[in-house]
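Incident review: delayed structure delivery

Summary: a single-chain prediction request sat in the queue longer than the usual turnaround. Root cause was a stuck worker, restarted by the on-call engineer. No data loss occurred. The affected request and its eventual output are reproduced below so the record is complete for anyone auditing the incident later.

Affected input:
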Amino acid sequence: MRAWPSALPVGLGVAVLWCGPATAHALSGEAGGFLSGFEHPIGGLDHVLAMVSVGIWGAQLGAPALWLLPVMFPVVMALGGFLGLIGVPLPGVEIGIALSALGLGAAILLQWRPPVAAALLVVSAFAIFHGHAHGTELPPGESGLLYSIGFVVATGCLHLLGITAGLVHRWAWGQRALQGAGAAVAIGGLFFLWNAVA
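Output delivered after worker restart:
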């Protein structure tokens, strides 16, 4: 039974990755809007790493951050998505997304424990950039509302994956494993940042 917490993230990861082939056929209209939105966050490694990291960091911080961070991120991301949908410009979107992976990875690596309000502010700032990127990439002819619902639902699934992985934080080996994951995410963020400014 002790192996169950570490096996669960693997199972959820397989389930999330399996969604790609299952929804690979382009659909038109409302179904296409939702599926396009759902696939968008899981189609980019920069988005995946940042959104899973929100869940892991929340798990490290514990209640109430455990549920506040994964709730705040999609809410603010939806606002950013709306701004992108209506064409409001936001400079440095790709840099902001890269910094989100770098910053969240570093927070996990260092086991940073700021006040909950500060953690919410950090997550919200990053969420605006992720949402704007999703909103500006609405495929022509598809429902903006259902597209937005799709990327918010996918984001929630990625947060849940991170929270589940973060359950290993209760053990010393799990804390070290999460710190290693945070280091990997931060390195990924540096790579994304290099590409964004190059």
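Verification: The two ends are 48 Å apart (CA to CA).
Action items: add queue-age alerting; document worker restart procedure.
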